[in-house]
Specification:
Layout lengths: L48 E4 L26 E2 L1 E4 L14 E7 L10 E9 L2 E6 L4 E7 L2 E8 L2 E9 L3 E2 L6 E2 L3 E8 L2 E8 L2 E9 L5 E6 L2 E3 L4 E4 L10 E9 L3 E10 L3 H12 L6 H16 L2 E4 L3 H14 L4 E2 L14 E2 L4 H4 L3 H8 L1 H18 L22 H12 L6 H11 L5 H7 L6 H19 L3 H11 L6 E2 L4 E2 L9 H5 L6 H7 L3 H12 L15 H9 L24 H14 L16 H11 L1 E4 L4 E4 L6 E6 L2 E8 L12 E7 L2 E2 L4 E3 H6 L1 E8 L32
Parallel strand pairs: 28-32
Antiparallel strand pairs: 1-3, 2-5, 3-4, 4-9, 5-6, 6-7, 7-8, 8-19, 9-18, 10-11, 12-13, 12-17, 13-14, 14-19, 15-16, 15-18, 20-27, 21-22, 23-24, 25-26, 26-31, 27-28, 29-30, 29-32
Helix pairs in contact: 3-17, 5-6, 6-7, 7-10, 8-10, 10-11
Length: 745
């Protein structure tokens, strides 16, 4: 799998084969770019490293800030002013607190610091990135969980230098830069230095080793060298007083000479940064290949957790890269919290919880259950220390916790872990915080009036009560569970009974249509609210654009009128954005899995591709890529409900690791799909040798491992048209199965 990963996918504007048929009717309101970067990463590690151009939103690339349509070009070719750390992964506007400690290899005077050099010969693989600057310097980067290692190969020049700029981060677009509030740095001995900056309330410490015994080591301030200086301290930096400052090694280079730079990072001071560097890289010089190989082994292990069989190199690359992008974030950094003194799980870059809770967190739970538990405990600690569960959590102190995007999203994640019975969480502790959190922010209005606006929060909170009731039943608090199950029924207050759609309200990055078809815990009642199965399917058909004409997508800098006309379509966004990523599976609850197959087939074949323009929109920290992984397997998690909907897979066979077990999806009569080609429909299924007449399996069945055999055909069948997925306003129950169903073969 690792050999098929292309980290460049998604780093430039969407460039897919022209959409045909159903897919041509979908409308894309959000930026048509994946916003990924090809830099070196470690699975769920706290450090990344990549070329830095200052472009939006990761610091890598050529594009300006864009919130809709085709992004504007900031640079006409790949460029970099150096190489930075802590990049985002595929987000939209979360941009300001990263790209610190820019490292610049130069053969120019220090006055040239900050200029852009053209990039050529870029290469990338999981855990490794390299490029050549037009100065002739070749750069190679790799990372560990809490470290980065740089290796630079210089041409012959008397003025070679490696410069680390402590003074600036963020982006080089208007209002995108971030400067330290306080900073200090000091040289300890030749080739060794340490320092710390405080940015947006977060201290980031570094311990640095540079293998340049023959070069001079100097501090600089305001682009002027400080020969003999050992330490710089800044007690208070203001934007008006900021001058570039940092650390430099300089001397003559021989052609082909390599300089290695190792940096350990910590949010808890320079001593811990030093320990982290030792833990990641060991002792002594020339550690680059050692660290690169260790990171590559770790990526190889994680990417082996899902495998597919296909004759299409293109589809193999799309799937492998989607799995790779799914495992970059969040950043898990045990015992690194800068905000409270206790050791234990800590996480940041939970940057798009409103996207990842439905697809990526269930994927982490399946592939890496111990890390999912670690993340859950980190969320619980954040709630205990700061007073509420975050909707997004970045490596910065402040009130920007993204509450308008959603409510009670951590509850969904915790409910899945609870229902799976994964060890390592104190559920009585969790219940206290889950219960208290439901009363904060929009929760008070929900309790007082039965609904809250934005109306999507009514659905969030109702489901949050349902999810918390699961935990209450686990710990034996039946009274609380019954109370919360009653409050969970308030989801119905969000809907207009005359239309069967959500009420008039404000909606985050969508319309009532994008939010009206989410998967609720009582879908049977939801379908009836639309007038029954036939009427519900008709609404879905209209939403997905069956028999609708093709639409024109927004271009560069679309007008307000153009965007309003697009939103007025009330159309599926084709995974250009994620509020409606669950909607294709809503057909299952009306007995029409054939429609799900048609929509998902068109998304997978027409909305994802190879090359830098291979994503339809922001990857959103792996939320989009995780959707691709699940859908390609013919599975989709109904987050928080401990069930997986099943349908036609994209590959003839596939295997996914679930903890220490494996779950295989195998097909009969499979035909390799093609762009714009015919859809394959499920004719029958068997789970571990027994007939499966329902279009779902429980999370427990998946996690026990086994085999799902899917018989496919060219026409819809009556499979799972009457045996619908569960709707459970009250206590959930395991499915009733035959004695062999669910048993391992």
């Amino acid at each position: 799998m690792i050999g098929h990963v292309d980290p460049f996918i998604g780093s430039e504007p969407t460039d897919l084969t022209k959409q045909t048929g159903l897919a041509a009717a979908w409308w894309w309101p959000k930026p048509q770019i994946g916003n990924t970067h090809p830099g070196a990463t470690y699975p769920l590690g706290m450090v990344s490293a990549c070329a830095y151009s200052g472009a939006y939103p990761t610091g890598y690339g050529r594009y300006d800030l864009s919130l809709e349509g085709v992004p504007s070009t900031l640079h006409d070719r790949p460029t970099a002013s150096g190489f930075t750390h802590f990049q985002q992964s595929g987000t939209g506007a979360i941009r300001k607190y990263y790209n610190y400690f820019r490292v610049t290899p130069m053969i120019e005077p220090l006055d040239a610091l900050g200029r852009l050099w053209d990039l050529t010969d870029e290469t990338a693989e999981p855990g490794f990135y390299s490029a050549t600057l037009d100065s002739g310097v070749r750069a190679e980067l790799t990372v560990g969980p809490k470290s980065a290692v740089h290796r630079y190969t210089f041409p012959e020049d008397p003025r070679a230098r490696v410069v680390i700029d402590f003074s600036l981060g963020g982006l080089s677009i208007p209002y995108g830069a971030t400067i330290p509030l306080r900073a200090h740095l000091e040289t300890l001995e030749p080739g060794v230095a340490q320092g710390e900056i405080v940015v947006e309330g977060t201290p980031i410490a570094v311990y640095i080793e540079c293998d340049t015994p023959q070069w001079r080591q100097m501090l600089f301030y305001d682009r002027r060298l400080m020969p003999g200086g050992k330490r710089l301290d800044f007690d208070h930096i203001r934007p008006t007083t900021l001058r570039p400052f940092g650390l430099m090694w300089a001397g003559p280079s021989r052609a082909g000479e390599t300089i290695e730079l190792r940096i350990g990072f910590s949010l808890r001071g320079v001593e811990q940064a030093r320990r982290n560097l030792r833990e990641d890289c060991g002792d002594g010089p020339a550690r680059f290949e050692h660290r690169r190989e260790k990171t590559k082994r770790q990526w190889r292990k994680q990417l082996k957790s899902a495998s597919v069989k296909t004759s299409s190199t293109k589809r193999q690359t799309v799937f492998s890269t989607a799995l790779y992008h799914s495992l970059i974030k969040p950043c898990l950094a045990i015992s690194e919290s800068p905000f409270w003194p206790s050791d234990g799980p800590f996480a940041f870059d939970i940057s798009t919880m409103w996207d990842i809770y439905r697809t990526q967190l269930p994927l982490l739970t399946a592939l890496m259950p111990e890390r999912a538990v670690e993340l859950a405990n980190a969320l619980l600690t954040i709630c205990e220390e700061e007073g509420n569960f975050p909707i997004g959590y970045r490596m910065a102190r402040g009130s920007d916790r993204f509450s308008r995007q959603g409510s009670a999203l951590a509850h969904t994640f915790l409910a899945d872990l609870c229902q799976l019975g994964l060890p390592g969480i104190d559920w009585e502790w969790a219940l206290v915080h889950m219960s208290d959190d439901l009363r904060r922010t929009y929760g008070e209005e929900f309790l007082l009036h039965g609904e809250t606006h934005p109306i999507s929060h009514t659905l969030d909170l109702a489901f949050g009560y349902w999810a918390t009731a699961k935990v209450a039943r686990r710990v034996g608090d039946t009274a609380l569970a019954e109370q919360f199950e009653g409050l969970a029924e308030r989801w119905v207050n969000a809907f207009d009974p005359t239309s069967g759609l959500l009420k008039d309200s404000t909606y985050y990055e969508g319309t009532r249509y994008n939010y009206s078809f989410r998967l609720l815990h009582d879908m049977a009642s939801r379908v009836e609210l639309s007038g029954g199965a036939e009427a519900f399917v008709a609404q879905l058909d209209q939403f997905f654009g069956f028999d609708a004409p093709a639409v024109a997508q927004p271009g560069n800098r679309p007008s307000v009128a153009e965007m309003q006309a697009g939103y007025a379509l009330g159309r599926f966004e084709g995974l250009n954005n994620e509020p409606d990523m669950e909607a294709p599976w809503a057909y299952h609850y009306a007995g029409r899995p054939d429609r799900t197959a048609e929509v998902v087939h068109n998304v997978l074949l027409q909305q994802f591709g190879t090359g830098r323009g291979g994503l339809p929109g922001n990857d959103d920290s792996g939320g989009l890529s995780s959707w691709n992984v699940w859908a390609s397997l013919g599975l989709f998690p109904v987050a928080g409900q401990n069930i997986f909907l099943v349908n036609a897979p994209l590959f003839s066979s596939a295997t996914i690791a679930v903890g220490d077990e494996s779950f295989r999806v195998r097909t009969k009569n499979f035909v390799e799909p093609v762009h714009g080609g015919p859809v394959q429909y499920v004719q029958s299924m068997q789970l571990n040798g027994a007939p499966l007449e329902r279009s779902w399996i429980s999370g427990s069945e998946l996690h026990r491992g086994g085999e799902l055999l899917v018989e496919l055909g060219p026409e819809p069948s009556d499979w799972a048209t009457t045996n619908l997925p569960p709707s459970r306003p009250g206590p959930a129950r395991e499915p009733s199965v035959s004695p062999t169903l669910g048993a391992k073969p």
